[in-house]
Amino acid sequence: xxxxxxxxxxxxxxxxxxxxxxxxxxxxxxxxxxxxxxxxxxxxxxxxxxxxxxxxxxxxxxxxxxxxxxxxxxxxxxxxxxxxxxxxxxxxxxxxxxxxxxxxxxxxxxxxxxxxxxxxxxxxxxxxxxxxxxxxxxxxxxxxxxxxxxxxxxxxxxxxxxxxxxxx
Length: 168
Hints:
Elements: E1 6-10, H1 17-28, H2 51-63, E2 65-72, H3 83-92, E3 97-101, E4 122-126, H4 129-138, H5 141-149, E5 155-157, H6 160-167
């Protein structure tokens, strides 16, 4: 097994790219305490690449991933070609999934969440620097394994007191 220290961000590239770029801007800003090792920096993909080539490269990225942040927007639920494949692959590889709702909802939004994740153990948060940073630190493979060993499944969300702490 390879060393996993990257964060893989999955999103609707046609509609939600700006949220991914916001995350990259947080990371690059000197005065903002936000960092993640971006799996998308591992290999280049060209728009003209075949679907098989793209999926092979994405799998290479996921092989180095310790967590997946899925940006859930208006169209994410209906994306099957790559986003659903990324989710399925993350589940298959037992990578923790953090679902960041772009509509500000702090728990699973069944109207927007891809059906494959509605029964899978995942953390649902609102999109924001502090909730994502907190979740990347806490929603780990070890934490999820412990929850499974206790027989727990399903959806998780951050308690309201965590969000209140972000406002301080």
